[in-house]
Amino acid sequence: MKSDRTVAHDLPVPEKGPAPGPRPASAAPRRRGRIRPWILVAVMALLAVPFLFPTWWMATSSMKTTSEILRVPPSIWPDAPSLEPYTQVFALQPFAQQYWNSLYIAVIVTAGTIFVASLAGYAFARIQFPGANFLFVVVLVGLLIPTEVTIVPLFRMVNSLGLIDTHWPLVVIPILGAPSVLATFIMRQFFLGLPGELEEAGRMDGLTRWGIFWRIAFPLARPAIAAVAIFTFLKSWNMYLEPIVFLSSRDKFTLPQALTQYVDAYGGPIWNVQLAATTLTVIPVLVVFVIAQRHFIQGLAQTGLKG
Amino acid sequence: MVQRRTLPALVLLVLGAGALAACSGATDDEGATPTAAAAAPVDLRMTVWTANEDHLALFDEIAAEYVAENPDTVSSVTFEAVPFEDYTTTLTTQLAGGNTPDLAWIFESNAPEFVQSGALADLKPTLVNAEGYEFDDILPTALDLWSADDGLYAYPFSNSPFVMFVNTDRIAASGQPSPAELVGSDGWTFDAARDIAKASTDQLGGAGLIVRDFNYSLWENLATVWGGWGASPWSEDGTQCNFTEPEMVEAMTWIHEATFTDGAIPGPGTNADFFAGDVTMTITQISRASSLDGTFNWDVVPLPAGPAGQQNVIGQAGIGVFQNGANPEIAADFLAYFTSPENAEKLATYFPPPRQSLLNTETLVSANPLLSEAQLESVVIGGITDATTKPSHANFAQLQTTVRGELDALWNEGADIEAVLAEVCAAAEPLLQD
Amino acid sequence: MTVLATSPRADRRQRRSAWRRRDAATGLLFVSPAVLGSLAFVIAPLVAVVWFSLHEWNVLAATFTFEGAGNYERMLADTSLHAALVASGWFSLGLVVLNISLALVLAVLLNQRLPGTTFFRVAFFSPVVVSIVAWTIVWGFLLQVDGGINSALAAVGIEGPNWLRGNVTAMVAVVVVQLFKNVGLNMILFLSALQSVPEEIQEAATLDGAGPWRRFWSITIPMISPTLLLVSILTVVGSLETFALIDVLTQGGPSNSTTVLVYYLYRQAFEFNEFGYASAIAVLLFTIVLALTLLQWQTRKRWVFHEV
Q1: Could you tell me if the ipTM is greater than 0.90?
Q2: What phi and psi, each to the nearest 5 degrees, are found at residue C237?
């Protein structure tokens, strides 16, 4: 299923853009000269508030007492910052173990997905084989299925294999099932954009198809792989319904699940401890993102999603 | 996009997948066929909704003793702590997935549904015949909810009375009469409580009276209030809607006025917690006393009286044995051990038992170390006898959601109470008749 | 296959076709994990769900009786389901429109190479990595009638409503909370796409006298239209699957105004123990998602522009 490759022709003005909606002041009607940069920066700063304040509130509230958290109007900075909730995080649960669980599952899922998706994406993009279109549709179906729809049959399947309360379903299903379809799609898009000459050259040199893939195509796919890696890691890291359904022992829990466990005997959340645990979950990922975001964005730009 | 000749292939594919799916089956799997004479010792599993370390340690201790006494039948007992909020969901998923636990805790509001479904095993024969069990020691009223047709389908191991916690610092600071004194002089009514709540809020800020866990969605917790009017959501047999009866209309009117006219009860959309210190009083279960952290002075009194008198309300939790589990007989035997007089006394530390011999201050003092003997006597013991339970129904899940949706219209300033309650009944009737 | 080659050209053709056959086999091998995985973990459960939807399955009572189209007839008469469909419609419409617009605006802003761009890029993306449960809990606090949002509004003299207690305001709140959580992801996709729009074309258009607005509509949008298509499909599908947010923030209320289709499904399955009916709703949900996706895919020729 090759993408349509039409020659550039007159650029049509679409009658109905796909992104209607209110236009903010920054894209205001043309005026001679540009809009002063500082206005745009001010607009961005204002826009950033609803993005940043909740995370800020979460981190600072993790150092408050419960009554201060519930106080109205909310306080920006804790009266008497305390790291006590953070010690509670580890005392009330095997949090370190749960952190490790989430981490190693996410890493394995990411590696496995990259492998499966790049293989499949490459084949769909560059190899002719019977039924390619049909099989691609079969795979694409996974993009359209919400987890809630299939969780019960999946649970029965896993249960009949005796794999409940293990990490197997949390690793195998994301790699081979619905969550990896987006990755396959992205890889295919990228490989479609590869110039054919490189592979011709490889074939001349006597490489097998596997060799062409492994030695030529895959190394070139670094940007797409970076994008896939981040998407997949985040998805696995934030997985919520599946661990709840498949796991029952606390030391096997993953982080999103663990966060819901900071409750007193009656199910009432212990707010400051829960927020402390949440902060511990979020900060490392944010730090990694800050470091890696340049690569991530460049990676996406070069995946050929544009065409 | 899909070529024509691939359509038959698609059909074949679907059929093949269907065969695969059918193999995983849609009917309940029997994990292990229950063996009459257990060949090997089994592992029992009980789902619970508490993650409290102390609770679990106590359970493990009792289980270890049982295993020591019955090494041939049971090798271990696992207490699976399921998050409180997701408890029903997780239990349901396990049942749907064929992963039925041997025993499970059951909320009282779901009791009729579970009891009538036939999913639970009749415990009476096992309990009555268990050595030293003293079945007659159990309060008959406590068993009502869990019995059907002469059988007992779950055991109410926890009976926690609803009481009124009072922040005496706030009472003193606002110069209000003390509820404990009012109890003594027979003046402890809902009207009195409302007045105190309003006055203290006006002077000190914060909130006055909170029905904890109601939060404008779990309306069944209002039973602690409307009990004083003799109201009930539906008839005893569960077929008639009583929301439009005069008692309920009066009770709801009182609540509405206390909230929107007097400001004694905080309105919807606010977050206030008695145990954080700026609420005057709260109705909640006695076991919440463990949340008190000593930052303010407090007292605990029985529920106030309404126009129809004073009505005690308890919250119950039951333990049931699933017939479809792997080992129902052994599980029932374990349950008998778990709730025997000796172990019930140990459990009384956290879970007030329905046993008359244990409902005395000596036993309970260790359970609720924060309470004085006088408080225990009047509030706990007095609270369990002649108490009603929160509303329950075979169709509770649907009723809860439906009534909640209709009652949402009530929690506004200008609500027409009678009209809203009429809507409630209109929506609830089909579910009650079911 | 063992025909003796009679000429060099025939020989080459034979080798080529042998190579092609091996290549085809390799291709099938490469895609087999993904395909088999899809069969086992996507297609098979889907078929199972359709099978369940033809039965009445009460998990508690362990009854599983064949109903045929009974559940589907029930769907036709179920007013709560119709209400859920309407709620889903409003939610998805609001979310998709706002999400794509805001993501585009943010991406354009970030593409201007203004001071502080890196900081803002991280800021706008940060909610994506926060867990949805935590994000929702925090917003739950902020949306209280006397919480952060209304305090901020009061500072500018507006009296904020009781957000989570009004039918319309609750829907608005739910859309907005989900919007800020995920828009960063779409923004990054748009940003990448914008950065690959060749400068020369923009410069050429400026030389021809096109203003920024005209340039945006006639050049930028068409150049990023493939990304727009992808984002549009993903956002629509995602909006129909939004569950955790509603479960934590409103539980489908007040008065069921925020009970969207997937939440209604969850409720039927896990609160009412009606797995057969829930499966029928799942089939409905899948059909809607499929239809909307196909619709967007098939109409792409009209507005998605590909270049060599």
Answers
A1: no
A2: -60, -45
pTM, 2 dp? 0.80
Q: Are strands C55-58 and B298-301 parallel, antiparallel or unpaired?
A: unpaired
Chain B contacts in chain C segment 191-220 (CB below 8 A): none
Measured between alpha carbons, how far is B301 from B147 in angstroms, rounded to an integer? 31
Q: Looking at chain A, which residue has its C-alpha nearest residue B28? A: A156
Beta-carbon separation of C273 and B217 below 8 A: no
Q: Among B10, B24, B271, whose Cβ lies nearest the Cβ of A153?
A: B24
SS (H, E, C) B55-72: HHHHHHHHHHHHHHHCCC
Q: What CATH topology corresponds to C71-303?
A: MetI-like fold (1.10.3720)
Question: Rounded to 5 degrees, what are φ and ψ at B301?
Answer: -130, 165
Burial class (CB in 10 A: 0-12, 13-18, 19+), A32: exposed
By the CB < 8 Å criterion, does B88 face chain C? yes
Task: Out of C45, C256, C273, name the one closest to residue B405 (CB).
Answer: C256
Contacts of residue C56, defined as CB under 8 A and 6 or more positions apart, other chains included, come to: C63, C64, C65, C67, C70, C71, C274, C276, C277
- Domain residue ranges of chain C, discontinuous segments joined by +: 8-53, 71-303
Which 36-55 residues of chain C touch chain B by CB within 8 A? 39-40, 43-48, 51-52, 55
Q: Tens of pLDDT along C206-236?
A: 888 877 778 888 888 888 887 888 888 889 9
CB atoms C60 and B119 under 8 Å:
yes
Which residues of chain A neighbour C179 with C-beta distances below 8 Å? Answer: none
Domains and CATH numbers, chain B: 42-160+315-388 (3.40.190.10), 162-313+389-433 (3.40.190.10)
Q: What is the pLDDT of residue B223?
A: 93
Touching check for B360 and chain C: CB below 8 Å? Answer: no
CB distance A235 to A174 below 8 Å: yes
Residues 6+ apart with CB under 8 A from A33: none
CA Rg, chain A, in Å?
Answer: 24
Amino acid code (one letter) for A171: V
For residue C3, name the pLDDT band (cuts at 50, 70, 90).
Answer: low
Name the more confident of A15 and B59: B59
With a cut of 90, say whether residue A231 has pLDDT above it. Answer: no
CA C254/CA C161 separation, integer angstroms: 14
CATH superfamily of A96-249+294-301: MetI-like (1.10.3720.10)
Quickly state the pLDDT bin for C44 (edges 50, 70, 90): very high
- Which residues in chain A have Cβ-Cβ distances shorter than 8 Å to B270? 72
> Which chain C residue has its CA at the smallest distance from B399's CA?
C272
Which of B24, B81, B82 has its CB closest to that of A157? B24
What is the rounded distance in angstroms from the CA atom of residue B401 to the CA atom of residue B197? 30
Residue C25 tokens read as 């086999």
What DSSP letter does each residue of B373-421 carry, written as one string?
Answer: HHHIIIIIIHHHTTPEEPP--TTHHHHHHHHHHHHGGGSSTT--HHHHH
Residues of chain B contacting C64 with CB distance shorter than 8 Å: 26-27
Residues of chain A contacting residue C195, judged by C-beta atoms under 8 Å apart = 297, 301
Residue of B16, B114, B401 with shortest CB distance to C60: B114
Fill in the DSSP letter of residue B138.
Answer: B
Segment-wise mean pLDDT, segments of 10 residues, chain B, 434 residues: 43 47 40 49 90 84 93 90 78 82 91 88 90 87 88 90 91 90 88 93 89 86 92 90 94 93 86 83 83 84 90 90 91 92 85 84 74 79 80 87 90 90 92 82
Residue whose C-alpha is closest to residue C126's, from A48, B41, B33, A35: A48
Considering only residues 252 to 291 of chain A, which have any Cβ-Cβ distance to chain B shorter than 8 Å? 260-261, 263-268
Minimum CA–CA partner of B112 in chain C: C60
